[in-house]
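Teaching assistant's notes for section 4

Start the section by putting this record on the projector. Ask students to predict, before seeing the second block, whether Histidine phosphatase family protein will look compact or extended. Collect guesses on the board.
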Amino acid sequence: MSCDVVLIRHAESVPPSPGKPDDPERPLTAAGVAAAELLAHELAAMNPTAVVSSPYRRAVATVEPAARKAGLEVMTRWELREWDSGLEPTPDYAGHYERSWADPDFARPGAESLRQLTARAMAAVDRLAAEHDGGVVLVGSHGTFVSRLLAGVRPGIGWPFSRDMPMPAVHRLRWPHENYPAPKAARSDRS
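Reveal the predicted structure now:
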């Protein structure tokens, strides 16, 4: 089982409103729409065999132009969603995120820890690689999701990397990654 996984952090979106939960329906800004259109040429040139996205509007809107160019539809998967940090939008989010990166097991009540997000991200990509063996899968998602997946396979990925990731951002991996080998197949003793 081997697959090229192209992780795409969504383009610039309308900021969340303080005092309200993060809205899965937040759209891209005009600049974000333009960036997604420009990125579509690069992504379609990778000859994707599938385009899969977080169901959040901003993630779908970022990969939809590439899917259209490649003649594919965007499939959505709940497990590719943004991190459930348990925080409402706040101007001082960076301090909260930095604390979570320093202690990946920390979780606010009813929320997901960053370690849990990493496990969710790795399992999601494992499933995609198994379903699209030999293919190239474009995966539209979010900055924290992409960062935590990369942290699971690359040493040195931390809060500064996540904080400074541009919108959009593209990271291509061969899956399974050399630092995260595929599970060994069960051995059969039948002759």
